[in-house]
């Protein structure tokens, strides 16, 4: 069975749809790169490197998800996703974050349960949503903190704080089981245990035959981090999402033989997912922001890749107290030290855990012209402040209102 899964999974790489999704991922990273150039003056990671990393982690996550789908016997039908995709796109017009199968899948399942149409395998659809989010949690844990974009954002109290916009995208091939109703097959089948599949569609018997189909999806992770480092935030987000996905998969298993549990799973998918988002926002709104100006020294918001600060080991959130023994309390103080182009520097720092450290760096051949640091501004307003992007419908409404207002 394992070899059959791997062999079937490898066929995903020759599907044109997979490479269309890769192209979409590339376009997203190109947009991120243009933002980095505007903010940092350079690109942290080449677009090609980002896309290759996303393909690697996407294939890894998809393979794990495919094993779960097949070994648990999560069975789909050919109609469920046909209703979910259009609704997901429609919900995206209300808010971009609603482009998620948790919302569309839950709504479609509830409509099917209440009205009897469309006829779909609710348990199978909810299990698929759970497995997709399980894969997403794995990818966020391994890869979610990368491609961070430093930002400044205005909080509800009017204060402006620094932070990061985390954005990662992955092309995901995934194997799905579909009940085969065609001509009798002679050979080429793999026997399965009596308990399999765990989630059965109506009409499935011990003699039923299933085929494995390749599906292609895209997963994305977006988050705003103000109160902790990107690494810590991605880990905590991944753990919460993992808990959500496990609960949804377990509910789906019970829903295979219980109408009441079908309702429970269909309700939990959108409500549970929305609760995760609201809880994350609550943490950011109520938590103590990390990237604010300190009373003494200058706080690091971001370091440029392979720059002197990065090579020394400086990280976001660190507070620089002294450079070569000279106190720094403004960017102009830092520029005064670097104006001399020293060949050797030592930097006294307090890290995010409150530990005082000293970092050293030397360049005797060329001298050190800059540290490669984006600081949290002190006593000045940042040059850029971001806010949550409005939905397509909100932008359309604003354009119509502005046009009518001019007449």
From TrEMBL:
Key words of the record: Membrane, Transmembrane, Transmembrane helix
InterPro entries, A to Z: PDZ (IPR001478), PDZ_6 (IPR041489), PDZ_sf (IPR036034)
Pfam families assigned: PDZ_6
Name of the molecule in the record: PDZ domain-containing protein
Xref: PROSITE patterns: PDZ (PS50106)
Listed transmembrane segments: 12-29, 50-72, 78-94, 123-142, 208-226, 238-257
Coiled-coil residues: none
Domain PDZ: 297-330
């Amino acid at each position: 069975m394992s070899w059959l899964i791997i062999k079937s999974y490898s066929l995903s790489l020759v599907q044109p749809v997979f490479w269309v999704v890769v192209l979409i991922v590339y376009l997203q990273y190109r947009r991120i790169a243009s933002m980095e150039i505007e903010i940092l003056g350079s690109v942290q990671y080449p677009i090609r490197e980002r896309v290759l990393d996303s393909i690697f982690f996407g294939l890894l996550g998809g393979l794990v998800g495919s094993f779960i789908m097949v070994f648990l016997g999560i069975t789909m039908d050919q109609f469920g996703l046909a209703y979910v995709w259009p609704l997901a796109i429609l919900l995206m017009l209300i808010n971009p974050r609603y482009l998620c199968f948790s919302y569309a899948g839950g709504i479609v399942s509830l409509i099917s349960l209440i009205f009897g149409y469309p006829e779909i395998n609710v348990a199978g659809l909810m299990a698929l949503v759970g497995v997709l989010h399980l894969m997403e949690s794995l990818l966020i844990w391994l890869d979610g903190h990368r491609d961070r974009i430093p930002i400044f954002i205005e909080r509800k109290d009017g204060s402006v704080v620094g932070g990061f916009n985390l954005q990662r995208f992955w092309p995901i091939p995934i194997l799905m089981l579909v009940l085969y109703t065609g001509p009798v097959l002679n050979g080429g089948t793999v026997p399965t245990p009596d308990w399999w599949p765990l989630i059965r569609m109506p009409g499935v018997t011990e003699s039923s035959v299933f085929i494995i189909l390749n599906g292609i999806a895209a997963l994305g992770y977006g988050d705003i981090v103000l109160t902790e480092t990107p690494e810590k935030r991605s880990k905590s987000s991944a753990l919460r999402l993992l808990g959500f996905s496990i609960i949804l998969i377990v509910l789906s298993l019970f829903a295979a033989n219980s109408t009441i549990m079908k309702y429970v799973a269909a309700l939990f998918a959108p409500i549970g997912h929305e609760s995760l988002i609201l809880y994350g926002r609550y943490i950011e709104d109520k938590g103590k922001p990390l990237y604010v100006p300190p009373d003494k020294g200058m706080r690091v918001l971001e370091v440029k890749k392979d720059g002197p600060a990065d090579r020394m080991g400086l990280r976001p959130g660190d507070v620089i107290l002294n450079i070569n023994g000279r106190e720094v309390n403004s960017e102009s103080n830092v520029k005064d030290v670097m104006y001399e182009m020293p060949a050797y520097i030592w930097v006294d720092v307090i890290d995010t855990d409150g530990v005082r450290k000293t970092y050293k760096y030397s360049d005797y051949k060329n001298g050190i012209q800059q540290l490669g640091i984006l600081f949290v501004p002190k006593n000045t307003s940042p040059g850029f402040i971001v806010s949550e992007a409005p939905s397509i419908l909100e932008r359309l409404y604003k354009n119509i209102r502005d046009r009518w207002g001019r007449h």
